[in-house]
Amino acid sequence: PPSNVTGFLRDTSCQDFFPHREPPKIWPASIRVVDIRIAIESVRGLKIMQLGCIADDFTGATDLAGTLVKSGMSAVQLIGVPEGNIPPVEADAGVVALKSRTIPAAEAVAQSIAALDWLRDQGCTQFFFKYCSTFDSTDDGNIGPVADALMAALDTEFTIFCPAFPANRSEEHT
Questions:
Q1: Is the N end or the C end of the chain the one with fewer CB atoms within 10 Å?
Q2: Using CB atoms within 10 A of its CB, is residue 110 exposed (0-12), middle (13-18) or buried (19+)?
Q3: In angstroms, how far apart are the furthest CA atoms of the chain?
Q4: Under a CB-based contact definition with an 8 Å cutoff, are residues 12 and 89 in contact?
Q5: Exposure string for 59-81, b = 16+ CB within 10 A, e = fewer
C-alpha cells in the first residue's frame, strides 16, 4: 500500500476495507490513495457517489439532477469541475455542469475528461453523459468527440445514445 497509509492499514484488517468482496491477496501496484479514502469512508458509513454525470450545459445538468432526486436518489450539482482539495461529496449521484456545448471540440473533450477524472476520484462506477437534446452545438459538433473520448477513457466500445427527454417534451421522431 502507499506509504502514507501503511500505519493505518497495519491496525485495520483488509476485510474492513472490502466488506462486500474477497480482500486482495496482495496490494496492486496501481492502488491510489483515493481508493483507500473511498474504502475508509465506506467502512465509516459515509455515502459514496456511485453515478457520475457530465452535462454539457447548466440547464441540462439541472434537469438531470432534478430528475434523479425526483426518482429517489440524492444528487449534488456542481458548476464546473471542482478544483483543489474539497471535502468528499456525500450523494448517490454527482452532476457536473459544464459549459462545453458551444466551445471548440478539443476544449469540450478536455473539460469532460477532467469531470470524469473528478467523478472517478469520488468513487463513481457508472457514468452518464447528458448532452443537449437539440443537437445545437458547434457546426463541427461536440457530442461525438466528447462521447468518443469518454468511451476511450472508460475503456468501453459500446454506449447508448438517447436524444430524447419526454418529461421535458423533448422527443425523438423517426
A1: C
A2: middle
A3: 61
A4: no
A5: ebbebbbebbbeeeeebbbbeeb
Distances (CA, A) of 135 to 93, 138, 169, 172: 25, 9, 15, 12
Cβ–Cβ < 8 Å for 55, 143: no
Q: How far apart are the first and last CA of the chain?
A: 54
Strand partners of residue 37: none
**pLDDT tens for the 174 residues of the chain, in order:** 343 333 333 334 444 444 444 444 444 444 444 555 555 555 555 677 889 999 999 988 999 999 999 999 999 999 999 887 777 778 899 999 999 988 999 999 999 999 999 999 888 989 999 988 666 555 677 888 999 999 999 999 888 887 766 666 666 556
